[in-house]
From TrEMBL:
<feature type="compositionally biased region" description="Low complexity">
    <location>
        <begin position="137"/>
        <end position="166"/>
    </location>
</feature>
<dbReference type="Pfam" id="PF00886">
    <property type="entry name" value="Ribosomal_S16"/>
</dbReference>
<keyword id="KW-0687">Ribonucleoprotein</keyword>
<comment type="similarity">
    <text>Belongs to the bacterial ribosomal protein bS16 family.</text>
</comment>
<keyword id="KW-0689">Ribosomal protein</keyword>
<dbReference type="InterPro" id="IPR000307">
    <property type="entry name" value="Ribosomal_bS16"/>
</dbReference>
<dbReference type="GO" id="GO:0005840">
    <property type="term" value="C:ribosome"/>
</dbReference>
<feature type="region of interest" description="Disordered">
    <location>
        <begin position="109"/>
        <end position="166"/>
    </location>
</feature>
<dbReference type="InterPro" id="IPR023803">
    <property type="entry name" value="Ribosomal_bS16_dom_sf"/>
</dbReference>
<protein>
    <recommendedName>
        <fullName>Small ribosomal subunit protein bS16</fullName>
    </recommendedName>
</protein>
């Protein structure tokens, strides 16, 4: 039986992460695995690579062949150089940044929220439509109504005037 060390894809569309598995070479990519020896998250910055070095050395020692991608990962962690007896067994793996505690992050956000002013917004909201034309017609309508009421008042005054003279 030909054994390979390969990647098993997991995750969602455009958000992949992989398990480094030892499996029969005839099984499909996400098929049954003999053993899971690590994980690889390429989308995180820097990429997360965790491989159990002891198990990787064992499987390489008994003849498991890594795929090209897994061999590159083993070179980054330094396991491939250790297996081949090459210099540079420390690898070039970048350390992951330390995660901030959720409680500390919450306390910081709470302190920032208390420092902000508690008054309402200083700019008043606009009322009505956003176009200028709608504003002009709204302003013109009360002006026209005012002139009409003045005309009506003048007409009634003229009508009352002759009746007052007699």
């Amino acid at each position: 039986m030909a054994v390979k060390i390969k990647l098993m894809r997991l995750g969602k569309i455009r958000q992949p992460y992989y398990r480094v598995v030892v499996a029969d070479s005839r099984t499909r990519r996400n098929g049954r695995a003999i053993e899971t020896i690590g994980k690889y998250h390429p989308k995180s910055e820097p990429s997360l690579i965790e491989i159990d070095s002891e198990r990787a050395q064992y499987w390489l020692g008994v003849g498991a062949l890594p795929t090209e991608t897994v061999q590159n990962l083993l070179e980054v962690t330094g396991d491939w150089q250790k297996f081949k007896g090459l210099p540079g067994t420390e690898g070039t793996l970048k350390p992951q940044p330390e995660k901030v505690d959720k409680l500390a992050r919450f306390q910081k956000a709470l302190a920032e929220a208390n420092d902000e002013p508690s008054t309402a917004a200083t700019t008043p909201k606009k009322k009505g439509g956003s176009s200028e034309r709608a504003g002009k017609t709204a302003d013109a309508a009360p002006a026209e109504a005012a002139t009409k009421s003045d005309d009506v008042a003048a007409a009634t005054k003229d009508a009352d005037a002759p009746a007052a003279e007699s």
